[in-house]
Amino acid sequence: MKSEDIFVTKPSLPQLESFLPYLEEIWSSQVLTNAGKFHNLFETALAEYLGVKHVSIFANGTLALLTAIRSLDLKGEVITTPYSFVATAHSLLWNDLTPVFVDVDPFGFNMDASKIEAAITDNTSAILPVHCYGYPCDVEKITKIAKKHDLAVIYDAAHAFDVRDSAGSILKYGDLSILSFHATKVFNTFEGGAVISSTAEQKEKIDRMKNFGITDEVSVVETGINGKMNEFQSALGLLQLKNVGQAIRGRGELSARYDEALASVRGVSIMSHMAAEHHNYAYYPLLIEENYSISRDELYEKLRDERIFTRRYFYPLISSFSMYNHLPSSCAANLPCANAIANQVLCLPLYPDLCFDEQDRVIDRIQKYS
Ligand SMILES: *Cc1c(COP(=O)(O)O)cnc(C)c1O
């Protein structure tokens, strides 16, 4: 029997029939975008679901990030991580800011907060950390450093939908956080994103900026952009909110099965100890270490030959791309942990519809090659 392809992720979608009434309403109202009914309903429902006050929904996460950064009027250098999706650092270049890369924690995937202060100069205006794979950053330490040096903090929380610590949503930290609802993320609206503001004034500014800086029919007060989420995406988002809790529970169950099966495999390091109080199991990263019988890339290729498509998130590091590799902070000596992890990491298939038989096929191969 030919075995089926297993991809690293598959988008969660509602039953098509359940979406049809929403489509009919959009078609008959002919309101397609510009803060329509579903936009406003979804924005309110999302804020309530996440337990945060000020949410602005966007057409995608990158526009949310670009707008969040621009709204703070930053200059000079911004401290960030090389271990992320390229949109993180690109959003700084698009805002004429210079990224300064800080290494990640030796036992994790997030920016090492103890290395931030050494990277601060007279030109530093902000910190842009990433809650990588949905694991919370050291938010306490980052808050302290930002206060002490009067720096803004924007969290790229693209992976951190509904992650909570003992104080509630981790989206409450920093001046602003952004989410992504891209098809590959835990919660999707095909494309989509959001900015979470810490104050009502910030949200008002973000809302204005995502609509060209328009305040009324005859007034434009700043250089905004078109970041609006349309009615189709918003209605889908409203419907997806009903299912995401169950999807996250399904991911959690699969993660626990991986943990149990892989914890004792020689040369493999699992990272489940990093789980937050309420995690979203967005990814299942493994480290393939030196005492595994083959290299990470050999394992990646062997799995691919067996139609199991894992991903090397995040390899290569952002700092190695041509628009970043000339920066002093991109040198290998500055980023030993990020380089080591980028060369060992492999994200395994994880999505609610992954059946146990398929997951067992992935587990079996990783055990077999150890
Ligand atoms: C997905 C992602 C983004 C960009 O979000 P889009 O919705 O795809 O534009 C930004 N940062 C990180 C870390 C991401 O994973």
Question: What does this 3D model show about the protein?
Answer:
With 370 residues, the chain is an alpha/beta fold. 36% of the residues lie in helices and 15% in strands. The protein folds into two domains: 16-239, 3-Layer(aba) Sandwich (Aspartate Aminotransferase, domain 2); 244-368, Aspartate Aminotransferase, domain 1 (Alpha-Beta Complex), CATH 3.90.1150.10. It has helices spanning 16-29, 37-50, 61-71, 87-93, 116-119, 139-149, 200-209, 231-262, 296-305, 336-342, 356-368, and strands at 6-7, 54-58, 77-80, 98-101, 124-128, 152-156, 164-165, 168-169, 176-180, 193-197, 214-216, 219-220, 268-270, 285-288, 308-309, 345-347. The strands form five sheets. A seven-stranded mixed β-sheet has the order 2-10-9-6-5-3-4, sandwiched between helices. Strands 13-14-16 form a three-stranded antiparallel β-sheet, with no helix packed on it. The mean pLDDT is 96.
Topology, please?
Elements: E1 6-7, H1 16-29, H2 37-50, E2 54-58, H3 61-71, E3 77-80, H4 87-93, E4 98-101, H5 116-119, E5 124-128, H6 139-149, E6 152-156, E7 164-165, E8 168-169, E9 176-180, E10 193-197, H7 200-209, E11 214-216, E12 219-220, H8 231-262, E13 268-270, E14 285-288, H9 296-305, E15 308-309, H10 336-342, E16 345-347, H11 356-368
Parallel strand pairs: 1-15, 3-4, 3-5, 5-6, 6-9
Antiparallel strand pairs: 2-10, 7-8, 9-10, 11-12, 13-14, 14-16
Helix pairs in contact: 1-8, 2-8, 3-4, 8-11
Bound molecules: pyridoxal-5'-phosphate.
